[in-house]
């Protein structure tokens, strides 16, 4: 279990506070837990988008999201997000493949 | 006889395990499949099937586990190319040992190009298994479908792979 010992004060717009309140009511969780869960989900979304835009590798995306690489591969598959590699990359890989098999 | 090595990064290793093609590739490689500690840690973190098979093959020494010496180089590669720990270690290992890399990640490939490291991908190796007669066309198509599910290759690559399996 992760220890929640760090405190960060953040100013939020009224609308976002209302969303947190609504989610915490509907999920029957306190507001702190709700914000923590939203941050967790935000990390995953951020990492997936950075990967999709070609800014980071899949390994870095897994690291940012807090998921294992295996879980990140499954998630990208589930979301239908294509790998960034292109036909030229595949064709370039032929030479080494011929040397090793 | 001491086999030369070929490095692999975490996502390609997991991909091989998920597609069920890992053992066939290990058996037919002319080089020893080699991973670093970070890659071992990244690929064996959870109690999933892919994690268990990788752990077992490392225990059996079918996959070699090595360490990298130059931590500074690892950190520089990681930051310069926006890579994860495993990818950066794999590339540092390739530079230290003058080996090629199996990777299916674009960022890692670009780092390889800049650092003059030869690379290949899991579909490239599957096609070699087919061309060498290790797997039949039906088997190759079966593995390709599984690879596509987890590797999420573009339509253009899939079309090329389909042509090569004709």
How is this structure best described in words?
The complex is a heterodimer of chains A (101) and B (166). Chain A is mainly α and 101 residues long. Chain A has 6 helices and no strands. Chain A is 67% helix and 0% strand. The mean pLDDT of chain A is 94. With 166 residues, chain B is of the alpha/beta class. Chain B contains 10 helices and 5 strands. Chain B is globular and about 45 Å long. Chain B starts with a strand and ends with a helix. In chain B, 51% of the residues are buried. The mean pLDDT of chain B is 96. Classes of the chains: A mainly alpha (101), B alpha/beta (166). Chains A and B meet through helix 3, helix 4, helix 5 and helix 6 of A and helix 1, helix 6, helix 7, strand 5 and helix 8 of B.
> Strand order within the widest sheet of chain B?
3-2-1-4-5
Question: Which percent band covers the strand fraction of chain A?
Answer: under 5%
CATH topology of the largest domain in chain B: Rossmann fold
Order of helices and strands of chain B: EHHEHHEHHEHEHHH
How many extended strands of chain B?
5
Question: Could you say what the CATH architecture of the largest domain in chain B is?
Answer: 3-Layer(aba) Sandwich
**Main beta sheet of chain A: strand number and arrangement?**
none
Report the structural category of chain A. Answer: mainly alpha
- Measured on Cα atoms, how large is the radius of gyration of chain B? 15 Å
CATH class annotation of the largest domain in chain B: Alpha Beta
Helix percentage of chain B? 55-70%
**Helical content of chain A, roughly?**
55-70%
Shape of chain A: elongated
Entry summary:
By secondary structure, chain A is mostly helical.
How are the elements arranged and paired?
The complex is a heterodimer of chains A (101) and B (166).
Chain A: H1 14-27, H2 31-52, H3 58-65, H4 69-79, H5 87-92, H6 94-100
Chain B: E1 5-8, H1 10-19, H2 22-28, E2 32-36, H3 37-43, H4 49-59, E3 64-66, H5 71-81, H6 85-97, E4 101-102, H7 106-114, E5 119-120, H8 122-131, H9 137-151, H10 155-164
Parallel strand pairs in B: 1-2, 1-4, 2-3, 4-5
């Amino acid at each position: 279990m992760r220890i929640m010992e760090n405190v960060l004060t953040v100013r939020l717009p009224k609308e976002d506070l209302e969303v947190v309140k609504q989610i915490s009511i509907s999920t029957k969780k306190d507001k702190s837990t709700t914000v923590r869960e939203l941050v967790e989900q935000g990390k995953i979304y951020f990492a997936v988008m950075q990967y999709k835009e070609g800014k980071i590798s899949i390994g870095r995306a897994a690291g940012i999201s807090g998921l294992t690489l295996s879980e990140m591969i499954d998630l990208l598959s589930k979301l239908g997000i294509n790998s960034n590699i292109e036909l030229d990359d595949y064709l370039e890989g032929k030479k080494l493949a011929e040397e090793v098999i | 006889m001491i086999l030369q090595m070929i490095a692999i990064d975490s996502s390609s290793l997991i991909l091989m395990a998920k597609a069920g093609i890992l053992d066939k590739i290990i058996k037919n490689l002319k080089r020893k499949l080699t991973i670093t500690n970070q890659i071992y840690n990244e690929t064996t973190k959870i109690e999933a099937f892919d994690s268990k098979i990788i752990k077992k093959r490392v225990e059996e020494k079918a996959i070699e586990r090595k360490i990298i010496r130059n931590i500074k180089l690892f950190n520089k590669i990681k930051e310069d190319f926006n890579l994860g720990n495993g990818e950066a270690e794999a590339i540092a290992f390739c530079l230290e040992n003058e080996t090629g890399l199996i990777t299916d990640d674009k960022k890692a490939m670009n780092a390889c190009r800049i650092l003059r490291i030869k690379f290949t991908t899991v579909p490239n190796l599957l096609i070699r298994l087919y061309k060498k007669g290790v797997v039949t066309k039906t088997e190759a198509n079966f593995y390709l479908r599984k690879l596509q599910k987890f590797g999420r290759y573009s339509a253009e690559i899939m079309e090329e792979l389909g042509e090569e399996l004709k």
